[in-house]
Amino acid sequence: MRVGFLGLGIMGGSMAANLVKAGHSVTVWNRSAGKSVQGAKRAATPREAVANAEAVWICVSDTAAVEHVLFGKDGAFDALAKGVVVADSSTISPNASLKIAERIRQRGGDFLDAPMTGSKIGAAEGTLIFIVGGKAETIEKVRPLFNAMGKTVLHIGDNGKGLGAKLGMNLMIALIYEGFIEALTLARKLGVEEHKLFSLIQSSMVRSGVVDYKMPFVEKRDFSPNFPLYLMHKDIRLMLEAAKESGAQLPALDTVNKIYDEAEAQGLRDLDYAATLKTIEKRAGLND
Ligand code: NAP
Question: Measured from the CB, is residue 11 less than 6 Å from ligand 1?
Fold first, then answer.
């Protein structure tokens, strides 16, 4: 398929590369110069990247960034062909995404909110799980693209529902990781060796996919970004905003949000969200 791909960050760069490997004709665009994908054409603007595309894939930071690549100066929107499918894998506001879907349908295309999970390793290995909102027939139109980038497509419901489920899932990631690092910190204060606690976690009912992924990085105190802290913080704010709009109460997440505020103030923004461990250790008077 002819694909315009917008956003070559940690996730988008590998996703576009996997589309090329699967034989698709890919034109990429990224806001900052210097990022490219071997075998893909490079466009100077989002508008140029999507001209003549059968499918457009977006993977940028947040709601404002998605609106910028579509509707900003030289944005993609005015160049979208009739019948195009636009899929957005960025984690953004479900309400804003619904408005974007409506505008694209009015132009004669269709839209999928297609946030994903699997992080940097899943994107590199083409094993992402896509959590999709939109029509089943629209998913089928771009099924070969999903297959090139991921291992599973979960169709959650209509537009906006993919993002609703993704926010719920990331809420659990934020809380599970917080539980993990608070457990580590308490155990260290009580004189327990870290590797012994790791063994206990791995061999008991508290084992989890989140901890399986993060433990090797935490062990080495390697906080290079897989999922940057500033993006998890953005997701937490989206969850709290959605809770306010819908009347849900998220007391544990309110507390975790304050820890992310503190971590950002300590300059940890561009590290992995795993670096919130530093914030919790600092509060406990522990050094790295
Ligand atoms: P990233 O490495 O920080 O990349 C962000 C991308 O967005 C870059 O290409 C950046 O361009 C672009 N961007 C930011 N603001 C922009 C704007 N105003 N206009 C145009 N482009 C803009 O992020 P990532 O980890 O790839 O994440 C991308 C999305 O996937 C996010 O919504 C994130 O929440 C979601 N996600 C991430 C993971 C993960 O583990 N990393 C997992 C699941 C979902 P520049 O290069 O110019 O900065």
Answer: yes
Looking from the CA of residue 119, the nearest atom of ligand 1 is: 40
Residue of 255, 182, 186, 265 whose CA lies nearest to 229: 265
Pocket test for ligand 1, best of 5, 10, 29, 61 (most atoms within 8 A of CB): 61
Q: For residue 8, which atom of ligand 1 is closest to its CA?
A: 9
237 lines ligand 1 (CB under 6 A): no
Q: For residue 46, which amino acid is it?
A: P
Contact 35, 49 (CB under 8 A): no
In angstroms, rounded to a whole number, what is the distance separating the alpha carbons of residues 82 and 275? 45
* Partners of 275 in the β-ladder: none
Distances 273 to 147, 187, 258, 264 between C-alpha atoms, Å: 28, 21, 14, 10
pTM greater than the 0.85 cutoff: yes
Low-confidence ranges of the chain (pLDDT < 70): 288
Please give the distance of CA 112 from its chain centroid, rounded to a whole number: 15
Q: Are 12 and 59 in contact (CB under 8 A)?
A: yes
Q: What is the pLDDT of residue 287?
A: 74
pLDDT at 288: 61
